[in-house]
Design a protein that fits this description.
Length: 254
Amino acid sequence: MLSAEQIINYQAPSDCLKDRIILITGAGDGIGKAAALACAQAGASIILAGRTVAKLEQVYDQIIDAELAEPTIYPINLEGAVADDYDTLAVNIDQQFGRLDGLLHNAGVLGQRTPLSHYRQDVWDKVLQVNLTAPFQMTQALMPILEKSGDASVVFTSSGVGRTSRAFWGAYAVSKFAIEGMVQTWAAELDELGSVRVNAINPGATATDMRAQAFPAEDPQGLKYPAAIMSAYLYLLGPDSKTVNGESINAQTR
Ligand code: NDP
């Protein structure tokens, strides 16, 4: 495995994702959008999953305009989705592609920035549903078609507060701690298989709507933009990380 610094500075070989089928959640905005564009640029066929179709269509158009492999739009609201919806997703991907080579669980919600003693139950439920339960259920349903790949990579999105919590980060921090733990469990269970690896990525402070929501007074000019943190994503989704399993890596030093 590369060192932490090598991963952040990784220069993905062009076409490193050639002919790979990669599903990205929350692909219409922020880091997910940048990941969809970067993976398409590296040769992958992207399944753009998300809840706001107009945003997914914009990403679709950008990929087509760049004359890259035609992506697929898959509308899904992770807040309301149930096991049947993920089974349907698996059947659709299997019928269209016959396998899945990459799964980037990127979609997430921040919830409230408030003390736990005042945290609303409905917000708690929503944050854990979107950030934790949905990626769990989706991974479970897609595992058979990931196994068909022979070299599949599942990447869950963590956060700095998923490793060391901070006051007022509520359900968000709890969901990211749980993601770190779930990655370790999946990785241990799949280690023998050797054909599906599962890792976590912490994007670090990145200029997106979510970051602005969390730090409204911050000047985004001082942050990396999503397109500038893609090296680690390409590393984890590409063949150079084939033996990396159960790790939690950083996309930038911050
Ligand atoms: P954004 O808020 O910019 O984007 C979040 C994405 O998730 C959007 O595409 C959004 O869709 C999608 N999404 C939210 N709720 C749902 C839902 N119910 N169903 C389907 N899709 C949904 O966030 P970022 O790009 O900043 O964050 C991406 C990931 O990185 C998240 O997991 C976040 O926790 C993590 N992260 C981000 C950091 C940062 O500094 N930005 C730092 C650490 C971690 P829509 O556009 O339709 O709302």
